[in-house]
Amino acid sequence: MSSTTAPPAGSASDTPAATVDTHCPYCALQCGMGLRPGAEGAAGGVEVVERTAFDVNRGALCGKGRTAPALLSSRVRLTEPLVRRRPGGPLEPAGWEEALDRVAEGLSKVRAAHGPDAVGVFGGGGLTNEKAYLLGKFARLALGTSQIDYNGRFCMSSAAAAHNKAFGLDRGLPFPLADVARTGCVILVGSNLAETMPPALRYLTELRERGGKLIVVDPRRTRTAEQADLHLAPRPGTDLALALGMLHLVVAEGRVDTGFVAARTTGWPEARAAAMAHWPELVERITGVPVPRLREAVALFCDASSSMVLTARGPEQQSKGTDTVGAWINLCLATGRAGRPLSGYGCLTGQGNGQGGREHGQKADQLPGYRRLDDPAAREHVARVWGVDPETLPGPGRSAYELLDALGRDVRALLLTGSNPVVSAPRAAHVEERIASLDFLAVCDVVLSETAALADVVLPVAQWAEETGTTTNLEGRVLLRRRAVAPPPGVRTDLEVLNALAARLGREKGFPTDPEEVFDELRRASAGGPADYSGITYRRIAEEDGVFWPCPEVPAVGEGAEPPLGPVGGTPAPDSSPGLPPGGAPGGTPAPHPGTPRLFLDRFATDDGRARFVPVAHRPSAEEPDAAYPLLLTTGRVLAQYQSGAQTRRVAELNDAAPGPFVQLHPRLAEKVGVAEGEPVAVVSRRGRAVAPARITPDIRPDTVFMPFHWPGAGRANTLTNPALDPTSRMPEFKVCAVRVEAAGEEHGEAAP
Ligand SMILES: Nc1nc2c(c(=O)[nH]1)N[C@H]1C(S)=C(S)[C@@H](COP(=O)(O)OP(=O)(O)OC[C@H]3O[C@@H](n4cnc5c(=O)[nH]c(N)nc54)[C@H](O)[C@@H]3O)O[C@H]1N2
Ligand SMILES: Nc1nc2c(c(=O)[nH]1)N[C@H]1C(S)=C(S)[C@@H](COP(=O)(O)OP(=O)(O)OC[C@H]3O[C@@H](n4cnc5c(=O)[nH]c(N)nc54)[C@H](O)[C@@H]3O)O[C@H]1N2
Ligand code: SF4
Ligand SMILES: [Mo]
């Protein structure tokens, strides 16, 4: 491993700087990279170098990761606080003292007038574990509010809910990515990872080189679908029926693994009955996938000696996302493809810390360690770590969209950090209006995002390469991002901001600014919880290149009379991967817990150790096409832009590659509408109207149009999307709504590429 010593703050050394091992600021793959500070002519003064030793990406990076240092340059970012000194006035530069005073005052005033729950906090799955943890603590302790949630609700919450129901524990992938290359068959449902996690494509290529099969389920023939042995292109919003149809065939063809079902699961009779109501011809009618293709998929999946189902946002971002993922899990359970080596269900988590960000308390119903806020034992444990009476901890609050929808009414002041909902929230025009109606808005960001532009105070914060912190990647592997350069003067870290605000709100103690100190507290708060980090230290992460949770601390012999708290909600299965001895060294200090790369091999994390089938049935999307809105809109991503685009639209190379929104539509539909390639086309839903250039391709179903959601303005996809929520996960239906499409003639959308 190369040297990892970071230069002290502000140091400008003449000697060539050492390479600092760290991870990409963007997606959940958390690719390893090296940073060489002080490189002449390099963007942001930092050069990215290959870090082949980190095995997830072995040095490979996508364009976003490769160009990430460009955002460190002060030309494109905020370097001083901004305040709006009068309502309707401009944002003006201010000193930190004034800005922080204004935030504390803005939040306190609303709290005094309307109670603590009138103050909200909105976080992000890109924030490090330390930030996410401290933000949750800040909301509950310094503000005393229950009203905190975050953008992860828009991301993997349906898969998380389904995971918890079926397995008693939610870790995106229950196995390392490397296992994907070694299984027999992968069904990839609604993931375009060739564009959203390019270095991960290697695992699918290796799979196929070894003779394994790849099935891709996507209404579009994407770059990922092009790799598949079998591409199923269902109508958006019908994955639930598709999975049920496959399970029906599994039963009909006698492919159920009855031994596994009897020994390791509960609830099969009800799930079986539900599946039997979804016979193949009915499923063909609902999904548009022909019965022979369905049979082919079942054969590929079941004939392999091991197989996996991996889902991403396609099936999850639906008002029935939880049931849909449940149906795919049922398929795995019925065929004995779970809790066994090289088999199982996994969710490809999205944001940089999409996994860790959902574990440590920035979620409305959650305490650190993936504990439940309504569990008395969990409240007791965390209150003890925080040194407060459990009675003082607020209860669960609203989910992300419900919180945004309540702004200006029940919730009148908001502290927002790590998200840009003006672009990324469903029914965005409404959300924008709600945000604008707040009594007070404070935003911490790196750049002046569309949401920050509406704030009363904007606090400029440091970013990935300028501060140390941990993230947990999509495999559940806790990683260390290391500080490589000093932040520019005028910029503070999120932890420093929380510390200063807490002090102004009367909490001088309990909000450390040193990330490692925060992490050590997080370890204690998570100890005994489902996501137990207590055995993980910065040192261990550095030495082992990441540690998979759960990883409880093993007490030294004779230490403390109290045994470590048992995990809440079931004991996670011990890892069964080779070469990791679970026991202690004979006669000496006990060996540390090795971490848990593979879950569920011996038992699931439910009380009885068995996985639970869920009896689910197909239901239509919240909005089905009708005469006025005869088509379906689905939304997603392109390779060169990230999320709301706040960061990547400011990187010239990426912006040149993907300069603006577009509407992807089939040639037959384009002809009917009367638009040619590149001409402006209007997409209209019950929420609003968006205009962007047409991109005509046979790679999409003729009944469906697709828009990426990375841009604000006329081409904003989320002007159109439906905030219908999944009843369990509270996930909005980003992936399906009814629209009509019109030629927009002279009407101009975003600049055509
Ligand atoms: N370049 C890039 N990479 C990213 C991100 C980014 O913004 N840009 N964001 C990161 C984050 S946070 C996330 S969550 C991940 C998301 O990663 P993905 O889930 O791969 O991304 P999406 O493009 O949202 O959706 C994937 C596919 O779902 C398909 N789809 C749409 N509707 C349906 C449906 O009803 N059923 C099925 N089966 N499929 C459907 C779309 O056509 C699309 O190809 O990417 C991460 N990586
Ligand atoms: N139509 C449609 N809408 C979607 C989706 C979809 O598929 N379709 N996908 C949804 C999904 S999966 C997601 S994850 C959301 C994401 O959407 P957003 O929540 O808007 O995510 P980002 O654009 O990543 O916003 C992160 C913001 O935090 C800032 N930032 C970066 N690093 C830091 C930091 O360290 N500290 C602070 N304080 N700020 C930082 C960035 O500059 C940026 O402004 O979008 C959702 N919206
Ligand atoms: S795939 Fe994800 S983590 Fe890897 S370089 Fe690209 S954005 Fe970064
Ligand atoms: Mo996401």
Q: Which key terms come to mind for this protein?
A:
alpha/beta, N-terminal domain of TfIIb, disordered N terminus, binds ligand MGD, 4 domains, Rossmann fold, binds iron/sulfur cluster, binds molybdenum atom
Q: Stretches where pLDDT falls below 50 for ≥5 residues?
A: 1-14, 560-585
Based on the structure given, which CATH architecture of the largest domain is correct?
Answer: 3-Layer(aba) Sandwich
- How many helices? The count is 22
Give the tally of β-strands.
30
Apparent shape: globular
Strand content: 15-25%
Q: What is the residue-mean pLDDT, rounded to a whole number?
A: 93
Class of secondary structure makeup: alpha/beta
> Numbering strands along the chain, what is their spatial order in the largest sheet?
5-4-18-17-16-6-7
The termini sit apart by 43 Å
Biggest sheet: strands, sense, closure?
7 strands, mixed
Helix content, binned percent? 25-40%
* Tally of individual domains: 4
Keywords: 4Fe-4S, Iron, Iron-sulfur, Metal-binding
Protein name: 4Fe-4S Mo/W bis-MGD-type domain-containing protein
Pfam families: Molybdop_Fe4S4, Molybdopterin, Molydop_binding
Biased composition (Pro residues): 579-595
